[in-house]
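Protein Record: Sequence and Backbone Structure Tokens
======================================================
Tokens: labelled as protein backbone structure tokens, with as many entries as the chain has residues.
Task: work out the structure tokens from the sequence, keeping to the layout shown below.
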Amino acid sequence: AETSAENANAAPAMIYAAGTEAAGNGLDASGTDAPGEAANETNEAAAESKNSLTGDDIISFARQFVGNRYRYGGTSLTGGIDCSGFTMAVYNHFGISLPHSSSSQRSAGSSVGSLSEAQPGDLVCYSGHVALYMGNGQIVHAQNARNGITISNANYNRILSIRRLL
């Protein structure tokens, strides 16, 4: 359970321009394969794309990487990525910036009261881990070196926080 002080300190997700639309081509956490490409877009365009973005869009993009490998500290959706890198890269593809730290992501966006109130695309935060809520009690996440990017039951471990970015 979160305290009201934690909620008061919650920072909204930072919005930057959307990355490339190409997927499965070795994209890094920036969502692009060309450094600085995203900087050419305006904040207004990014905000507009965020307003039309749905959690289902987030999950649809994330699901295509199921089966790819986990790598601690990794930021490549196809070459190896860790849990916070996964959530960071998925959201960054749509122009929403997250830190590469599961504990820092725990304060992104706004708080969601419980799993029963969670919507697709919400961050599900655990101790030392973060995942994307898919709906129906399921998450997609970069779990560990053995399982890689996989789909699991959201209650596989004690949930510390659920955060909404959209």
Residues 1-26, 30-48 have pLDDT under 50 and may be disordered. The first helix runs from residue 4 to 8.
